[in-house]
């Protein structure tokens, strides 16, 4: 898979030489190229921004500079719709989730356009959409960063670890998609079985594989209900067994004809 990242701070992407993503690049599994947007600027000062039309604070990234950069980096790919996707990190985008990462891992060529200041002139996304390029504006969450570079780091790591042939991935990816899909993970422990007076739950030392699996599923569900009720609402009811429903009922959730809904909201605080 090929990923191009365009930024005015290409050095921000240096951590992508480390760890598993770095290894994937060295082995050729991931062809990741980082570009300096200013290479496409026209003037001596390599200007990439201008003041916002209509007024307001801050600066906006110029469409002409972005257009020339993206024409080059998207390359002939603009003539092959479906082969390339333009990803634009922005706090106004759709939230990045695992489904999106899984989909992007199947796209042969992803170009990430990292904005700064108040963002990129809106006509850039509009232009490439009009030329048949899939354009996805993505947010990391409901908070504001200074630019798209951190989102690009997150995206590359989330996608690269899913690529077939990524070192050490098959078993752990299978485990992630196990249990009640769409829940948080269960808590994990290692040796020693007692540490500073805290004991590892006895069931994990029992060797009873089925009981361990059930306990983990209970923990995952309970954690999810307490911390992420939004995820409980999206669970597929058909995937819940009798015990799942009992656990959720205990936490105030009931199965209705429109899926799960909270009947008695919990009073306590999530830990
Ligand atoms: C200017 O919060 B963010 C984010 C913030 C940004 C830009 C892109 C992304 C561009 N500010 O994910």
TrEMBL record:
UniProt record, GO biological process: tRNA N1-guanine methylation
Main location: cytoplasm
InterPro entries: Alpha/beta_knot_MTases, tRNA_m1G_MeTrfase_C_sf, tRNA_m1G_MeTrfase_TrmD, tRNA_m1G_MTases_N, tRNA_MeTrfase_TRMD/TRM10
MF annotations from Gene Ontology: tRNA (guanine(37)-N1)-methyltransferase activity
EC number from the UniProt entry: 2.1.1.228
Gene Ontology terms: cellular component: cytosol
Subcellular location: Cytoplasm
Gene3D superfamilies: 3.40.1280.10, tRNA(m1g37)methyltransferase, domain 2 (1.10.1270.20)
Domain tRNA methyltransferase TRMD/TRM10-type: 1-233
Binding-site residues for S-adenosyl-L-methionine, renumbered to this chain: 115, 140-145
Catalytic activity: guanosine(37) in tRNA + S-adenosyl-L-methionine = N(1)-methylguanosine(37) in tRNA + S-adenosyl-L-homocysteine + H(+)
Keywords: Cytoplasm, Methyltransferase, S-adenosyl-L-methionine, Transferase, tRNA processing
Name of the top EC class for this enzyme: transferase
Pfam families found in the cross-reference section: tRNA_m1G_MT (PF01746)
Methyltransferase found in the keyword field: yes
PANTHER family, alphabetized: TRNA (GUANINE-N(1)-)-METHYLTRANSFERASE
Entry's family note: Belongs to the RNA methyltransferase TrmD family.
Known role: Specifically methylates guanosine-37 in various tRNAs.
NCBIfam families, sorted: PRK00026.1, trmD
UniProt subunit comment: Homodimer.
Protein name: tRNA (guanine-N(1)-)-methyltransferase
Gene for this chain: trmD
